[in-house]
């Protein structure tokens, strides 16, 4: 919930932007405390994951209260890339669900979290093509319908749009990376195809914005082109990072399969 509409009409950020920033930083504090609790009891938890989550939360907080340089459309696209793509990738790489499952004490919450993660609705929400549709499809609806223009003077609608951008980005990244435990673990072909399809749809949308502003808006041509180029190439960078995650998982899976095959051959030869 961090694009420019959360800022007040004055010079500084509005109450909603400050609330969003505070919530992001609070999530970082909770994550770091949970990681520290694991280490105190002797469990291993990589510090790189702490860095990923802290960086993602800090990026969300900065997007809420800081105004990026450039024209209004360019600044909006910077926030879009941070909130909808870069920050979700950093947060998902930190494996927050795994941390919560390991750090929570036995009790109702500890039982409810895996039950929700392994539920049938959760399995379909992380179905990669559906997650891609919710993510990139939502951007097409936002920029190629009157929705964005209509949200300017409707605070509740603005909040819903901004929440969707973040939530859909997290869901898509979670579905593609598949790092935390869920009920249905969709394979590499599903996740790779969803990533390719989402990347293509995102690129086409960026190209269309280069040619024509969102419905009901007016931006300077240079600002519009700069923002569209930022969306195009910035999206490519984040999607390339997601592809690297998939490639590493494919390589690791291949190594494990080869090791199992070698163990079977040695057992058969004995």
Features:
77% helix, 270 residues, disordered N terminus, globular, single chain, mainly alpha
Q: Short description, anyone?
A:
The protein has 11 helices and no strands.
Question: Would you write up a description of this structure?
Answer:
- Helix content is 77%, strand content 0%.
- The termini are far apart.
- The N terminus is likely disordered.
Fold topology:
Blueprint: H1 15-40, H2 47-65, H3 72-93, H4 96-103, H5 108-117, H6 120-125, H7 128-144, H8 147-151, H9 155-177, H10 188-211, H11 221-269
| Mean pLDDT across residues | 88
Which strand-content bin applies to the residues? under 5%
Radius of gyration in whole Å, from Cα? 21 Å
Which structural class do you get from the secondary structure elements? Answer: mainly alpha
Poorly predicted tracts of residues: 1-10
Helices and strands, in order, run as: HHHHHHHHHHH
Number of DSSP-assigned strands: 0
Number of helices: 11
Q: Estimate the helix proportion, in percent.
A: over 70%
Biggest sheet descriptor: none
Distance between the termini: 62 Å
The general outline is globular
């Amino acid at each position: 919930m961090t694009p420019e509409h959360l800022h007040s009409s004055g010079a500084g950020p509005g109450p909603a932007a400050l609330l969003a920033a505070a919530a992001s930083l609070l999530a970082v504090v909770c994550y770091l405390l949970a990681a520290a609790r694991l280490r105190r009891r002797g469990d291993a938890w990589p510090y790189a994951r702490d860095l990923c989550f802290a960086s993602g939360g800090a990026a969300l907080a900065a997007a809420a209260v800081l105004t990026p340089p450039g024209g209004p459309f360019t600044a909006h696209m910077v926030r879009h890339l941070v909130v909808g793509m870069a920050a979700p990738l950093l947060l998902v790489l930190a494996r927050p669900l795994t941390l919560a499952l390991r750090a929570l004490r036995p009790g109702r919450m500890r039982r409810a979290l895996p039950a929700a993660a392994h539920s049938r609705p959760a399995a379909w929400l992380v179905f990669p093509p559906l997650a891609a549709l919710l993510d990139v499809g939502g951007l097409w609806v936002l920029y190629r319908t009157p929705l964005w223009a209509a949200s300017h003077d409707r605070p509740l609608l603005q909040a819903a749009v901004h929440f969707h951008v973040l939530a859909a980005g997290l869901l898509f990244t979670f579905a593609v990376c598949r790092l935390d435990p869920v009920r249905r673990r969709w394979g590499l072909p599903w996740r790779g195809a969803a990533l390719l399809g989402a990347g293509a749809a995102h690129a086409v949308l960026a190209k269309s914005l280069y040619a024509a502003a969102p419905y009901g808006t007016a931006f300077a041509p240079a600002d519009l082109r700069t923002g569209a180029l930022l969306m195009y190439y910035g999206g490519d960078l984040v999607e390339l990072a997601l592809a690297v995650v998939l490639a590493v998982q494919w390589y690791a899976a291949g190594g494990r399969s080869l090791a199992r095959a070698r163990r079977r051959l040695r057992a058969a030869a004995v």
